[in-house]
């Protein structure tokens, strides 16, 4: 019996791996993509990654001006694309839940653009972002599904790495749109 995939079927990905501390420390890309350990949370790693982003933003914002934030976000996106692609490939999954760098970048961008906001405003931004990222309404669902298919060789490629970042960027844009409308009518 021939079990080789037909030309119409891409080969299956190898069995997914699970991220753990050993995996985190095995490659610099893993440390970045897993949010320096935040993605190892057994419960709600995306929320934990977003909380880590919030805490690190509060710390970093004391020393970074707008130009430096823009540079950090641009560099973080480029490095994050590489790190998320390598890590997803090593985990044999197109978008593993343990990868949280996408949440970190997206929430940093939100906070950078809504500041100065008090604790309540930041909490509202956090809640909105988590809603859009987790529930994936409309455009976020489209962005999430757009890049999830494995590469034709049956492995995670650069397009899936981009997709990991892209749906969270769309969730961030939706969050910022709601905040802008709220500020305009308030």
Descriptive overview:
It is built from 8 helices and no strands. Helix 3 packs antiparallel against helix 6 and helix 6 packs across helix 8. It has 186 residues and is mainly alpha-helical. The radius of gyration is 17 Å and the shape is globular. The protein has helices spanning 21-26, 28-33, 45-60, 66-91, 101-114, 119-135, 138-146, 158-185.
Topology:
Elements: H1 21-26, H2 28-33, H3 45-60, H4 66-91, H5 101-114, H6 119-135, H7 138-146, H8 158-185
Helix pairs in contact: 3-5, 3-6, 4-5, 4-8, 5-6, 5-8, 6-8, 7-8
Beta-strand fraction estimate: under 5%
Mean pLDDT comes to: 91
Which structural category fits the helices and strands? mainly alpha
What's the main sheet like?
none
Q: How far is it from the N-terminal to the C-terminal residue, by CA? A: 68 Å
Instruction: Describe the oligomeric state of these chains in a short phrase.
Output: single chain
Gross morphology: globular
Proportion of helical residues: 55-70%
Q: What's the total helix number? A: 8
Number of strands: 0
Query: How would you spell out the order of helices and strands?
Result: HHHHHHHH
Taking pLDDT < 50 over at least 5 consecutive residues as the criterion, the unreliable ranges are none
* Cα radius of gyration in angstroms: 17 Å
